């Protein structure tokens, strides 16, 4: 290669400069050509498939392909499928019409995988489509329906089927087209002049006393601009979504592996990583509280001393919720079957495809601006400002589009660090979490230990319940208090139970903080209550649908918190079960081979019906007519792909 590396990207000839030879293709596309439609989600391990592009007619992973290997290559990225002559590529048309993508972060990898297949054969089989798409991960909805979109696009390309897309669709679907074709900007796609990289030095141990964090050697390394510790915070060294209990930089006690000791800020990721490795850290180990049940033992280490005054007998309890309805003793006396069982559900990782990214800027008027894809921009500002020691009006959260959230982006991730970095250096600072860091440090769905005792009459009527739930809310409060409240409110499922006692506890351990996650506490108790109920139904040899219909909450009936369902609140469970029953009755079951068995299962759940505290479900927005004739809508919803 005497003349270096020459290649074609999106029909444009490119001659590669020597400094790019060791770069992976995805970095060259994103950082040099600013083709940010190609995404990353797996720390360049080649496992997520989001970075797929078409190289010489084949869909290939670009994060593991070095530029030096691409001499003569012809490459196509998602940007090449943008609207031309008012019409997008048929694949773009069909995936939009079929509603395949939500957040859209995985779209480019999936669509280019499908296009490479259709470029090769216009009549692919189901297995060929499945194989082409299988290398791309999608967290929002999965790509299990996209095969139909691919088939329809193939038919349009063959001329066997007319496209139903119109020029009006192109105009109306402007935002969706931007998202699907790589033009929509997520936080990590942003770039600012003189932008620095910030990365946290984390504790790496679940519980310990900080003895030393010596940054002297690291500060002298090439490219290191600033290293921030607790002494560099101009305001409060503490934050929290509901309760302020988590330090920005730990200078005394660390309570989980993700706790932060320092923030290293430098010119490049490689230099910053070298700076992190050069910091001299000494942490004396402390006893570890591994589970919620360990945390409530008499001899358990106390993780937050302030809670001893609140719950002297259980000092690791953040919050205890209790509700009682009717007379459980009387109810159990009426029961023909009393069933007791304990359940455990584990932590769950959110696994949004876009990992956490924040970029802080110091504006000329002193305002600190933080670009971030967050589920709670208002709450972000409330937590960033006190750490900076400024009024909230001096902090602006520039809300970016999210590559998935599911509750996990309600909490602070890099927002405070990016803001501090911008103030300390006067330059833009990007704090981007790797996949490993995201899994190590981010909030999770609550693990929980659930004890259920329920009573039922022989004709299938629920008469009593006694339930205890211990939710592992991890090292810090996050949204644990509100999640465990929901577990209490929905502990019996969507059924009318006249005699109930429920106790739920948000319990601190040395695990990751646990907070919001799709279902917000409803999923853990839904699992336990439905498994429990089904066991009772099976024991009494009752019909699973009829028994649920008999006990279902409906208009005029009261939840276990005493909220009476009205038409304003909504119900619908009876109608839903009746519809399922009717469909099952007319559904023809497939023929089975000897080794196959077919089962039809049913389970029910509900969430946030009145929230259990007599608060009406409502939302609001402000609409104003601007001077230029446009309507401006102000609302509090974060769009994560649901179209708000």
**Low-confidence runs:** none
Please provide the count of β strands: 22
Which percent range describes the beta-strand content?
A: 15-25%
Structural class by sheet pairing and helices: alpha+beta
Amino- and carboxy-terminal Cα gap: 52 Å
Helix share, percent: 25-40%
Outline type? globular
Nearest-integer average pLDDT: 95
**What is the helix tally?**
18
Radius of gyration: 28 Å
- The strand line-up of the biggest sheet is 8-10-6-17-14-15-16
Q: What summary fits the major beta sheet?
A: 7 strands, mixed
Keywords:
5-stranded mixed beta sheet; 644 residues; 22 strands; single chain; 7-stranded mixed beta sheet; 21% strand; alpha+beta; 18 helices
Can you describe this structure?
This protein is of the alpha+beta class and 644 residues long. It contains 18 helices and 22 strands. The strands form five sheets. The protein has a seven-stranded mixed β-sheet with strand order 8-10-6-17-14-15-16. It has a five-stranded mixed β-sheet with strand order 2-1-5-3-4, with helices on one face. The chain has a five-stranded mixed β-sheet with strand order 12-20-19-18-13. The longest helix has 18 residues, at 522-539. The radius of gyration is 28 Å and the shape is globular. The two termini are 52 Å apart.
């Amino acid at each position: 290669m005497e003349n270096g590396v020459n290649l074609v990207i999106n029909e444009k000839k490119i001659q590669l400069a020597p400094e790019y030879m060791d770069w992976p293709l995805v970095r060259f596309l994103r950082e040099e050509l600013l083709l940010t439609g190609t995404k990353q989600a797996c720390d360049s391990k080649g496992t997520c498939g989001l970075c797929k592009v078409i190289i010489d007619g084949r869909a290939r992973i670009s994060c593991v392909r070095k530029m030096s290997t691409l001499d003569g290559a012809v490459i196509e990225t998602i940007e090449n499928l943008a609207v031309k002559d008012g019409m997008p590529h048929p694949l773009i048309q069909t995936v939009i019409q079929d509603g395949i993508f939500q957040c859209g972060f995985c779209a480019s990898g999936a669509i280019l995988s499908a296009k490479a297949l259709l470029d090769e054969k216009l009549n692919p089989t189901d297995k060929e489509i499945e194989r082409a798409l299988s290398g791309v991960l999608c967290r929002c909805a999965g790509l299990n329906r996209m095969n139909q979109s691919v088939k329809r696009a193939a038919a349009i390309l063959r001329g066997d089927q007319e496209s139903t897309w119109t020029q009006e669709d192109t105009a109306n679907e402007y935002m969706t087209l931007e998202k699907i074709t790589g033009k929509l900007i997520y936080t990590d796609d942003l770039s600012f002049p003189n932008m620095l990289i910030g990365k946290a030095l984390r504790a790496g141990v679940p519980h310990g006393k900080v003895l030393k964090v010596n940054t002297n050697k690291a500060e002298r390394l090439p490219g290191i601009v600033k290293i921030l510790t607790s002494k560099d915070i101009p305001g409060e060294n503490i934050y929290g979504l509901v309760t302020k209990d988590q330090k920005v930089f730990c200078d005394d006690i660390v309570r989980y592996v993700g706790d932060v000791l320092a923030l290293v800020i430098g010119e490049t990721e490689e230099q910053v990583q070298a700076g992190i490795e050069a910091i001299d850290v000494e942490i004396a180990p402390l006893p570890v509280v591994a589970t919620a049940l360990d945390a409530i033992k008499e001899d358990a280490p106390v993780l937050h001393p302030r809670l001893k005054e609140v719950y002297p007998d259980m000092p690791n309890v953040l919050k205890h919720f209790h509700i009682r309805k009717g007379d459980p003793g009387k109810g159990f006396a009426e029961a023909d079957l009393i069933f007791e069982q304990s359940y455990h559900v584990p932590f769950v990782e959110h696994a949004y495809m876009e990992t956490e990214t924040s970029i802080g800027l110091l504006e000329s008027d002193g305002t600190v601006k933080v670009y971030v894809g967050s589920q709670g921009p208002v709450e972000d500002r409330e937590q960033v400002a006190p750490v900076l020691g400024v009024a909230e009006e001096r902090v602006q959260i520039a809300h970016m589009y999210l590559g998935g959230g599911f509750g996990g982006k309600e909490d602070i991730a890099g927002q405070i660090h990016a803001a501090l970095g911008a103030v300390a250096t006067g330059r833009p600072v990007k704090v981007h979490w790797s996949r490993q860091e995201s899994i190590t440090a981010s909030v999770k769905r609550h693990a929980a230990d659930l004890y259920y005792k329920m009573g039922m009459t022989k004709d299938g009527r629920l008469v009593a319940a006694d339930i205890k739930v211990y939710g592992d809310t991890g090292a810090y409060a996050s949204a644990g208090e509100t999640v465990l409240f929901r577990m209490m409110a929905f502990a019996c499922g969507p059924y009318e139970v006249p005699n109930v006692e429920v106790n739920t506890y948000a319990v601190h351990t040395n695990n990751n903080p646990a907070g919001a996650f799709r279902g917000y506490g409803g999923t853990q108790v839904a699992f336990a209550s439905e498994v429990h109920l089904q066991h009772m139904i099976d024991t009494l040899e009752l019909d699973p649908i009829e028994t649920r219909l008999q006990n279902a909450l409906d208009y005029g009936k009261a939840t276990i918190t005493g909220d009476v369902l009205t038409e304003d609140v909504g119900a619908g469970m009876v109608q839903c079960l009746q519809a399922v029953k009717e469909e099952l009755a007319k559904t023809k079951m497939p023929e089975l081979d000897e080794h196959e068995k077919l089962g039809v299962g049913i389970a029910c759940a509900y969430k946030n019906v009145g929230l259990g505290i007599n608060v009406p479900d409502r939302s609001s927005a402000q609409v104003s007519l601007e001077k230029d004739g446009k309507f401006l809508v102000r609302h509090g919803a974060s769009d994560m792909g649901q179209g708000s």
